[in-house]
Amino acid sequence: MVLLTFVVGCTEDFEEMNTPSNVITKVDPSYVINGMFQNPLSNYQRNINLYPDFYSQYWSNIVSGFESPRYEYVDGWIGNQWNEFYTGPLADYNAQIGFYGEDPAYTNVLAQMEIWMCAEWQRMTDTYGDIPYFGAGTGETVPYNSQQEIYYDLISRLKVAVDAIDSDDSSQYAFPANYDLIYSGDLEKWKRFGNSLRLRLAMRMSNVDPDKARTEAAAAIADGVMTSNADGAHIPLWSSGWYDYHHQMAWNWDNTRASRTFTDYLYGQSSVGEDPRAWKWFTYKDDDDVLADESVITGIENGYNTLPANAKAYATINLDGGYVGFVGDGADILMYMPYMFYSETVFLKAEAALRGWTAGDANGLYIEGVQASMDYVGVDATSASDYISGLPSLTGPNEEQLKQLITQKYIANFPNGSEAWADFRRTDYPDISLPLDGVSGSSSVAADTWVKRIRYPDNQHSLNSISMPSTQNTVDSDRMDIRLWWDTADTKTKSGGLMSSNF
Amino acid sequence: MNQKFNYVLLFVALLFIQGAIAQTVSGTVIDNYGTPVPSVNVIEKGTTNGTSTDFDGNYSLDVSDLSGTLVFSSLGFVSQEISIGGKSSINVTLTEDVEQLGEVVVTALGIKREKKALGYSVQEVSGDDISSAGDGNVTTALQGKVAGVNITTTGGIGGNSRIELRGNSSLADNNDVLWVVDGVPFSSGDTSDGGIWGGTSNGGGLLDINPEDIQSMSVLKGGSAAALYGSRGANGVVVITTKQGSKSQGLGISYTGSVVASNAAYFLDLQEEFGQGSEGVYDRLGTSSWGPQFDGEAREAWTGEMLPYVAEKDRLKNFTRTGVTSRHSVSLSNGGEKGSYRATISKDWTEGIYANNEIKKTNFDLKASYEINPWLNIDSKISYINTKGQQRPEIGYYSVVSYFNSMPMNIRLQDLSPGYEIIGGEHVETLYTTANANYRNPYFLQEQVVNNDERNRFFGNFTANISLTDALKLRLRYGLDNYRYETESGYLYGDNVSDQKPNYNTGEKFFSEENMELLLTYNKDLSEDFNLGVSAGANKMYSDSDELSASSGKLISEETYFLSGAEDSSTISATENFTEREIQSVYGFVDLSYKGYLFLNATARNDWSSTLPDDNNSYFYPSVNLSGLVSEMVEMPDWVQYFKLRGSWAQVGKDTDPYNTSQVYTLGSGRFNLTTSSEPNLLVNSDLKPEISTSSEVGAELRLFKGILGIDFTYYSEDTENQIVIVDLDQSTGYQGKYDNLGLVVNRGIELMTTITPIRKEDFRFDITLNYAKNKGEVKELVTAEDDDEFYTFIEDNGGVQVRGTEGEKMGDIFGYAYERSDDGQIIVDEDGLPVRAAERQVLGNIQPDFTGSIGLNVNYKNFFISALLGMQEGGEIYSLTEASAVGSGNALRTAENDRMAFFVDGVMADGSSPTQIVSAQEYWGRVSGITEEFIYDASYMKLREVSIGYNLPLSLFGGESNFIREARISLIGRDLFYIYRDTPGTVPDASAFSTSYGAKAFDFSPVPVTRSVGCSVNLKF
C-alpha cells in the first residue's frame, strides 16, 4: 500500500493541470473592445459592400458573376455577418458582463460597451428582422425575438447605459485612450453617441409605432445628442494589415464603381448644379477606358447581368480628393469607416421636427445637416454656401418635404450604406432603381420588387430552424422581399414619386 | 567517425574474451523434421557455462569436465539432458513440446505469456522480419506483416504514416496507436502532415526507433489485448521488445550494414504529343499543353531562343536523383551467469530523391541486466537518439510533382535549371511565364524552401524485479521519454509570388513523459489441476511539453536569414505553447488455468485522467478472455496436432486532448498593436465523457498435418460510442462549435493468418504465410439533438470532393460530381456542346477496401534463402486528383486521344436531341477536369513489397568455425519493385495520399514520387 501511494498520488491538482499556463481566465475590458469595434470592418466587403452598399446604390458592382447586386444571397459572403456578430462581439461582451457585471468600478466601461452593442444589435436586426436576442450568445440556443421587442429593449438599454456613465467618478476603470478607438476615452461623447443611437432607433419606428417613436425621439434629443462633427462615430481602420475597405475594392481590386443612382443625386439638387462634394468623393482612373464626358461624375448602373466592356471607365473613389476620412491612401494614414455621422443626427432631428414631434425648425435643421456634411467632407465655405443657398426650402406636402430631406440625408450619409439602405426601406426615399437586368434566377426577391432584408444564414437553417419565425423557417420561405417590422409600405405603392405611408 | 567508433567497440569487446580454453564439445541440434534449430540453449549442467546454437543449429561449448552433462533447451521443445561421456561431438534431435506448441508472446505490460493461454489474437513479428528489407522506418517496415494492420505512408523518406488496427473507429480521426518499447510508452509525437495546400510530412517520433535493435514486435489489435493499457491503448498497442545481451562465443560483436538505392518509379501517365499554347496555337509564354502537335521545328521558346519544338520526356524522373540509404549498426553483447549487456551504435543516412532532402539518424542503445542476489534482478536500458531531417519536400498543389504535371510539355529542364539568376546579389526565380503561385520553377523551390528539423531524445527505463517469495514477485519500473525537437522553416530567397519572402521561422519543443509503475504478481498451483495467478499494479503517467516558436516576417534580404533580420522589427513574433497531462491508474488481473488446457483471464483497470472534467475523469476498463485447447481435451484425428478456441470481451475508453474542458483566453496583438483577447469559438464542455469502445472477438488456431498447415482465424467486432468530436453549434449561441460526445461507429471484421510449410527438410525449407483481413466500418449513429447533420465530413478538397461518414452507411464514402445524365443514362450535353456536371454531389465510391492481404514466401535452401512479401488490396475506390489537374492543363495522357480533333460529345441535349455544337479537346477536357466521376479508379492492387535473396557464407571461407568471423551473410534486397496489377493512371493507389488523415486515402495526389528500391545488406558476427 505504501508503494501504491508512491505511484498514485491524488487527483486534486488535475483541474489546474488541465488549464494551460499561457492563458488568462479573466479578460481585461480593453482587450476585447478593439475586436468589438473592428467587427463591422472585419469582412466589410462580404458583409456590407456586397449588400447594403449596393442596395443603397452608393456603389455598383463591376465584377462579372457577382450576383448580390441582383438580389442573390451568398452564404459565404453576408452569411458571415451572423457568425461574426454572435460569436465575436456578443460572446465577448457577455463574457465581460460575467467577469465585471457585479463590480461597480466597471460601470462606465460596461456602459460604453453596452452602447456599442446596442448599435450593433440594431444593424443586425435591420439586416434580418427577427433574430435571437434575449439570452443569445450564452452557449444555449434561444428563441427568435420579434424586431419590436428588440427595438423596445434596445431603447431602454441605451437610456440606462447613458445614465450609468459618470465621467466624474475617478474610481472607475477607464479604457486607455488608445484603446477607445472611437472616442479616445471621452465619456461625454459616448453619452451623446448613445442618445443619438436612441434617436436613430426611435425614428426608425416612425411609421410602424409613431407614438413610441415620438416619445423616445423627443426624450433622446432632450438628453443630448451629437453637437458637432467631432461627435461623429467613426471606426478607425488600420491600413498596415489586411483590409478590404473602399480604397481596395474601388481602386486596387476594381470591384466597384460609383452607382449611377448616387452620382445622379450629385447633380441638379441645388441651383448651382454640381454638388461640391462630387469631386471630393469621386474621380476617374487614368488607366481605364475614358467616358465621353469626364467633366461630370458618372457612376455605373446597378444590376447588370452582363457588364458593359467599359465598366471600369466609370467614376471611382478619389484618393486625392482631400477627403481621406474613409478612403485613406492605403499606406500609413488612418482610415475611418463612418458609423454614425453628426449630420445624420441633425437630419434625424429635422425629421422629428417635420413630423411635429419636437419644437425645432425642420428647414433650419435640414440646412444645418447639409452644412455639417459639407464641413465633414472638407468643402470650402463658399462652395458649400452656394450649394446650400441653391437648395429649395422644405415646403409643400409632408411626403414631398420628407423626400427632399431624406434625399439630402442620403447624400450626406455616403458611404454609410447600412444606414442609407435602412432609410430607403423605411421611407422609400430617395428613388432607388431596381436591378437593371432584373433579379438573378436564384434570388428570392419577386421580379420588379425591391430587396427588403437578408435571409438567415445556412447555419441557422441547418441547426436552428426550429427557433425561426414559422413563416420563414425554410430556405424557400426565408425570402429577401419580406418587409421588416418597421418597413410598413411597399415601394411599389409610390405614386408620382411620393409615398403615402410616411405620415 | 564510424570507423573510429568501431575500433573502440572492438577494444572494449576484447576485454571480455574468455581467458582459459578448456575441452570443446560441438555439434548440431535439429528437430523431428531434420531442420536445424537455432537459439537452443546449451548449458553444462550444474554450472553457468553455456551457449546457444547458431542459425544452422550448430553450437560449440568449452566445458570444464568431459564427464559432465549438457542440457539442451528451447522454447517449444522438450528439454534434453545428454551426458558428454568424453565425446567432443554431440548431435541432438529435439522433439516438439506439444504443451508449449503455441510459442511465448509478449502481451500487455510486457508480460510474457504462452500463446495458447490467450483468449485473443496476438501477432508477433520478429526483429529479423522488420529489418530484413533494409527499411529504417519501423512503421513502414511493419507494412503487410500483420493481418488487420493497415499502414499508409506519405511524403517520401521520413514521411508520416498512418497505422490503422482493425479499421478506423474514430470520427475525429483519433487513431493513434500506443507504442511501448521495453515496457515504456514511446512518444510518436511531432509528426506533421501536409495538406492539399502545402506543408510537409514528418513521421515524427517513431522514426527514432532502430529496427536493428528490435527483438520482436507484438501487435495488440483488439480491446482485450490492450485493455491493460487503459485509455492510451484504446486504439491498439505495439509492444516492442529490444534485443538483449546473451552469452556468445567469440567476441560478441555483430555488424549489420546495408546500402539501398531508391529511384522515383511511379508517375502519372503524361502525353508527349502536344506542347505549349492554347487551342492548337503555340504560345511561348503559355501555361498549359493545349498548343500544336510537336513537329520538331524551331520556335521561339520562353527563353527567347529558337528551340526545336519537341516533348521534354521524363521531366519529373530526371529532376529527381537516386536516393542512397546507408545504414550501419554495430553491437556488442555478452552475458554470463549473473547478467548480460548489449550496446549498439547505429548510423543511418537516408537520401531523398530530391536534392538536399535527407534524414540522418544516430541510435545509441545500452541494455543491461544483472542479478544482484537471488531475490533482486535489475534491468535497465538507456537510448540516445538523434534524428535530423533536412529539406523535407512540400506537399500539395504547390509541390514539385504538381508543377511538373501541369507544366507545358516542351519546357526543358536544362532551361529551368538552376532555377534562378543572381540579380543585384539576390536570387531571382527563373520563370517560364509570368509570376503566379501555380507556375513555379521546381529547381528554384528546391533551393528556396527550408524545412529542417532535429530531435534529440533520451529514452530508457530502470526496472527492479524482486522475488518476495517463490510465489510472490514485485516489479518496479521507472520509464522516461524525453526529447528536444527543433524546427527551422522559411524561404531563403524572395520570389515574385508573395511579398512576404524571404522569411525565417524557428521553433523548439521540450517533451517529457515519465511513467512510474509497480506490479505485484502472485502465482500458485492451487491443486494438481488448477493454477492461479493474481497480479495488481499501478501506474502514474505525467507528460508535459513546452514549446516556443518564433518567426521573423519578411526579411531585409537573403543575407539576413535570421530572426532579427526582419525588415520591420514589429513583424518578429514569438508564441509559446504548453501542454500537461497526467493519468493515474490502478489495475489488476487474474489468470486461472485448468489442467494446462483451459485458461481464463480477467483484467480490470481504472484510469483517472487530468484532461476530463472532475466528475467524469475516472473510468474503468474490464476485459475477460477464455482459451481452450480442444486438442488436449478430446481425441483428435491424426492430422490435427493443435486446436484452440478462444473468445474475449473488453471495454476500453479514450480521454480527450488537454484543455477541452475549461474556457480560457489567449492574448494576441490586434490592429494598432493593441493587446487583444476574445471569446474562443469553441464552447468548452464540462460534461465531456470518455469515448467508449466495446469489443469482442472469437477465434480458432489450428496446426494440421504435422505442422505443415497452421491457421489462425479471428472474428471481431468493435463498437465505439460517445465519440469526442467537435459539433457545429447554432452560431447565435455565441459559439461555432463545441466538443461533444456522439455517434456510434461499428467495425466488424475477420482476420485469417495461414502458414504453410510444404517442405521442411534439413537443408531445404519452404514457408508460405498468408494474411487476410476484411473489415467493414459503419457509422451507425451520428445525430445529436443539436446537430441534424446526417453525415460527418472527414475531408474536402478545393474542388468540393468530400469523404464522408454518413449515418447508417459504410464509413468513407467519396462524394463528388458526376455527369448529369438522362433517364437512359446518357450524358447530358449543354448548348456549348459540353457535358453537364450534375449540380449535387453524389456517392462515387468508398475508400474502404473489401479486403487486404499479403503473401509471404520464405525459402531456405542450404546456405541460400529467399524471402518475398506481396501486398494487396481488393476493392475500394480512389479519386485521381493528380490526373484531374493534369487533364485541365492538357498534360495527362488521355488528353491526347484522337489527336485532339474537335468532336461532338457522346451524349444528348436536355431535350433528348443530339448535340449540335462541336467542341475542341481543350474545351472538352477543361469541362471534364471538374467532373469527379471521370477520375474515380479502383484502388485494388497487388505489388511485390519486399524481396530479399541471401547467402550465408560458409565459415570455411574464413578458416573454420573457431575463426574470428563466426557468421557472415549477404543479401540482396528490394522494396516496392513492381505492381502486379493496379488501375490508377501510372500513379499508385497505396502511397499517394497527401496526408495521413483518414479521408486523404481517397485522393491520388502523389505528394512525392513513389520509389523503387534495391540494395544489399551484410551481417557479420565476430
Automatic annotation (TrEMBL), chain B:
Membrane topology annotation = Multi-pass membrane protein
Please give the InterPro entries that the UniProt record associates with this protein: Beta-barrel_TonB_sf, CarboxyPept-like_regulatory, Plug_dom, Plug_dom_sf, TonB-dep_OMP_SusC/RagA, TonB-dep_OMP_SusC/RagA_CS, TonB-dep_rcpt-like
Gene3D superfamilies, from UniProt?
Carboxypeptidase-like, regulatory domain (2.60.40.1120), TonB-dependent receptor, beta-barrel domain (2.40.170.20), TonB-dependent receptor, plug domain (2.170.130.10)
Gene Ontology cellular-component annotations: cell outer membrane
Q: Which GO terms describe its biological process?
A: siderophore transmembrane transport
Give all residue intervals belonging to the TonB-dependent receptor plug domain: 116-237
Q: Does the keyword Transmembrane apply?
A: yes
Which superkingdom does the taxonomy of this entry point to?
Answer: Bacteria
Q: Under which name does UniProt file this protein?
A: SusC/RagA family TonB-linked outer membrane protein
What is the species of this protein?
Answer: Maribacter luteus
